[in-house]
């Protein structure tokens, strides 16, 4: 009955049972060797065990057999064994010496278990750890010892895989992070989850970022071990830092370029703004929710440009480019000129779902372009003036001389005719003088002056003309206005020209108000009349050579004034409403 039981075990056990004789040959191999390795037991009988073990694993086999022959109870070794078809399988072997009478060395009984699948899984796990830079570890809390996987050693940059102590581990934690790691370890002892991100210093001095986390294993009520993983996140940190730097650089570039981005969720009718767009509108980020498209347009778009916005959005939702210039209202009530471009995103059904793009403040750019155009106009006018003045002045001198001679003999109506001729010739001479001012640089002497004194002298000059035209002039000037560096006579010419135009714009009388402001190193002078005003299409051309709104004007007065103000590093702006009047604002730098 006992032999039948042994035979039943022998035939059904999946492990290979083998007995090695004292001389190293197989004395017995169980039948399970055939389905595992393809050998019939009789094929291995009398052959050496070393014949089918992988050459690289024979040393491990020798060590295990030597240990059990030397008195160790159980020998354990893992090796690769060659299948009959030539491939190798992994086996875990447990062996023990069997002593029999008269056998000095003793035979060895072994049980071999196929662990090929397990080894494959372990190798895949190790490969996955290497690829993901994830190592596994175990901390025996009672023994205060650490066990590391091979990938842990690679992450820390250790050449050997010698046993790791907690103190050795902590010695490679960055000094600035060590207290945080120790605190996390202490929290584990109190039952908290272990999860901490820190830096390590490899033996080479290289800095790496890692993230460790673990789970606790209890033995009764006490913590027995903590096991977990550690991932090298250095590349992630570098990418994160590069991305953060890139975002910071983008924000800085957008701030410098006055460029922001926006995104309209069409489905939910919700608009998102970048921080720079908030700055363009004069708001602090998060100060006000943008809301829907209608709320945005009503709150931030100039009333005259709202129809253009809706028209452009409608076209963009059909696939047309979204590209327009408009005026936006700032929190302080001022307007800025912006350039908006966008693109529409559609879903798989062709329905618009998002409209996103950029917005750039081009106010300064347009002002600069306008100054350049004005400068070009002045340059062209100067070149033209030089030619005209040269051709006219010489014959004009001759004509004036002969008219003067002939007028001395004139009588009656002829005397009136000569007086009229003299007047018109003087007018021609005045125009030529203005042309000469444009044609060549003037010899000027800049000095520190009080602008209030200059205005008082100008008002004395034009006061009588204003009274004759039933025009009153009032002034509201700051008591303590700083000095300006200017050429006094040229500024007088500008102020006289402005006041003269205002008086002529009110043939039935009216009021001219002059006021001043001082802000950020500049003095502002504002001349406002109650005249007929200038239509917008004509206002755009004011300052062009020989363009005038007056029947008998030359179109040079405003141009000359603009040139004088530019020479003083100032600005001159003209605004007007038909039926309401015209306002000229001049800003000049203070000393």
Protein architecture, described:
- With 591 residues, the chain is an alpha+beta fold.
- It folds into five domains: 2-114, Beta-Lactamase (2-Layer Sandwich), CATH 3.30.450; 130-232, Beta-Lactamase (2-Layer Sandwich), CATH 3.30.450.20; 260-361, Beta-Lactamase (2-Layer Sandwich), CATH 3.30.450.20; 367-439, Helix Hairpins; 447-589, 2-Layer Sandwich (Heat Shock Protein 90).
- The chain contains 18 helices and 23 strands.
- It has a six-stranded antiparallel β-sheet with strand order 8-7-6-11-10-9, with helices on both faces. Strands 2-1-5-4-3 form a five-stranded antiparallel β-sheet, sandwiched between helices.
- A hairpin with a 5-residue loop joins β15 and β16 (352-361).
- α13 packs antiparallel against α14, α15 packs parallel to α16 and α16 packs antiparallel against α18.
- The longest helix is centred in the middle third of the chain and has 45 residues, at 363-407.
- The chain is rod-shaped.
- The N and C termini lie far apart (123 Å).
- Residues 75-127, 194-245, 322-374 form the PAC domain.
- Pfam families: HATPase_c (PF02518), HisKA (PF00512), PAS_3 (PF08447).
- This is histidine kinase.
- Residues 1-72, 148-192, 271-320 form the PAS domain.
- It comes from Alicyclobacillus fastidiosus.
Main traits of this protein?
591 residues, alpha+beta, Beta-Lactamase, 5 domains, six-stranded antiparallel beta sheet, five-stranded antiparallel beta sheet, 18 helices, 23 strands, rod-shaped
Helix percent band: 40-55%
CATH superfamily membership of the largest domain: Histidine kinase-like ATPase, C-terminal domain
Task: State the name of the first-level CATH class of the largest domain.
Answer: Alpha Beta
Shape: rod-shaped
The number of helical elements comes to 18
CATH topology of the largest domain: Heat Shock Protein 90
Q: Could you give the distance between the termini?
A: 123 Å
Question: pLDDT average, as an integer?
Answer: 81
Counting helices, strands and paired strands, the structural category is alpha+beta
Proportion in β-strands: 25-35%
- For the record, the count of structural domains works out to 5
Using the CA coordinates, give the radius of gyration: 49 Å
Biggest sheet, in brief? 6 strands, antiparallel
Low-confidence stretches: none
| Structure summary, number of beta strands | 23
Strand order of the largest sheet: 8-7-6-11-10-9
CATH architecture of the largest domain: 2-Layer Sandwich
């Amino acid at each position: 009955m006992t032999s039948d039981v042994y035979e039943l075990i022998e035939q059904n056990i999946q492990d290979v049972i083998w007995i090695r004789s004292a001389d190293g040959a197989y004395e017995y191999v169980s039948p399970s060797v055939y389905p595992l390795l393809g050998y019939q037991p009789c094929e291995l009988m009398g052959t050496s065990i070393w014949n089918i073990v992988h050459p690289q694993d024979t040393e491990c086999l020798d060590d295990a057999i030597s240990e059990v022959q030397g008195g160790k109870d159980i020998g354990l070794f893992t090796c690769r064994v060659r299948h009959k078809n030539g491939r190798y399988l992994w086996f875990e072997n447990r062996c023990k010496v069997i002593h029999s009478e008269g056998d000095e060395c003793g035979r060895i009984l072994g049980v071999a278990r196929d662990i090929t699948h397990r080894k494959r899984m372990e190798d895949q796990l190790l490969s996955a750890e290497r690829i993901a830079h994830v190592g596994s570890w175990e901390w025996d809390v009672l023994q205060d010892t650490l066990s590391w996987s091979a990938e842990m050693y690679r992450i820390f940059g250790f050449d050997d895989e010698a046993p790791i102590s907690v103190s050795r581990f902590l010695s490679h934690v960055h000094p600035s992070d060590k207290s945080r790691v120790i605190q996390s370890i202490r929290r584990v002892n109190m039952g908290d989850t272990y999860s901490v991100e820190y830096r390590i210093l490899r033996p080479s001095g290289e800095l790496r970022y890692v993230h460790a986390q673990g789970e606790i294993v209890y033995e009764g009520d006490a913590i027995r071990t903590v096991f977990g993983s550690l991932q090298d996140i250095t590349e992630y940190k570098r990418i994160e830092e590069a991305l953060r730097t890139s975002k910071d650089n983008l924000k800085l570039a957008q701030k410098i370029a006055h460029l922001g981005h926006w995104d309209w969720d069409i489905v939910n009718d919700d608009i998102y703004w970048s921080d720079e767009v908030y700055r363009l509108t004069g708001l602090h980020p998060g100060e006000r929710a943008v809301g829907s498209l209608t709320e945005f347009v009503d709150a931030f778009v100039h009333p005259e440009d709202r129809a253009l916005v809706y028209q452009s959005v409608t076209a963009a939702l059909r696939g047309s480019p979204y590209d327009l210039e408009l005026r936006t209202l700032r929190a302080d009530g001022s307007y800025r000129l912006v350039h908006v471009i966008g693109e529409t995103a559609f879903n798989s059904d062709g329905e618009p779902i998002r409209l996103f793009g950029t917005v750039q403040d081009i106010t300064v750019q347009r002002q600069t372009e306008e100054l350049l155009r004005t400068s070009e106009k002045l340059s062209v006018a100067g070149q033209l003036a030089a030619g005209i003045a040269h051709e006219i002045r010489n014959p004009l001198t001759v004509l004036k001389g002969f008219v003067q001679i002939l007028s001395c003999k004139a009588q009656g109506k002829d005397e009136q005719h000569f007086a009229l001729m003299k007047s018109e010739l003087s007018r021609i001479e005045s125009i030529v003088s203005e042309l000469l001012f444009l044609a060549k640089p003037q010899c000027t002497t800049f000095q520190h002056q009080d602008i209030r004194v200059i205005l008082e002298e100008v008002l004395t000059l034009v006061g009588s003309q204003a009274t004759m035209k039933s025009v009153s002039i009032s002034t509201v000037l700051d008591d303590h206005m700083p000095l300006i560096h200017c050429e006094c006579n040229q500024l007088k010419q500008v102020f006289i020209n402005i006041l003269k135009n205002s008086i002529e714009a009110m043939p039935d009388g009216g009021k001219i108000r002059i006021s001043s402001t001082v802000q950020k190193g500049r003095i502002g002078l504002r001349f406002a009349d109650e005249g007929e005003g200038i239509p917008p299409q004509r206002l755009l051309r004011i300052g062009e050579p020989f363009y005038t709104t007056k029947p008998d004007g030359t179109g040079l007065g405003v141009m000359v004034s603009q040139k004088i103000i530019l020479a003083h590093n100032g600005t001159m702006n003209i605004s007007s409403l038909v039926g309401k009047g015209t306002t000229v604002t001049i800003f000049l730098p203070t000393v």
